Amino acid sequence: MRASILLPSWEVVTEGVKNQIWEAIQLTFDVPNTHELRRRWISYAGNRWTGFKTFLTSSYIFGDRSGENPTEKYQWISAETWQEFVRSRKDPTFLERRKKAQEIQAHNDCPHILSRGGYDLLEKKLMAEKLKEYEEASQANPSLGLKAPSPIPRHVKWKQGRIR
């Protein structure tokens, strides 16, 4: 089951549709049926659904694929649904919200560019580099008696997460 792209937000998707999505997840993946896991997976599905709508909007309505028809690639989107979606995205209230969000994002001087690993993976890499430097220094001068490296400071992780 899929949530319609015509719905304005994930909050208005019915519990029935969310339950069907949860059942499909359980059939596809080996996931225990707990309330916490259901909540997380449904939240993840909502984020993916919102991202898909954003992709359709930025690519097929306002982007470089504006002449193409996504109903050919995504067969579950009917022509009527697509036309209604385009109408909703070209509505003045939506365009105003979109412009405001773009202006806010334009002020983000320091977007992070971390991949799937996020700060955890970055911290592991930085600690490995630091440990290697400590080992090289202790091999060069064993009398130093260097101990384990200290944790990576937060500001260093912040800066490294924003370097291309």
TrEMBL record:
- Disordered: where is this region? 136-164
- Top-level taxon in the UniProt lineage: Eukaryota
Q: Where is the composition biased (Basic residues)?
A: 154-164
Protein's UniProt name: Uncharacterized protein
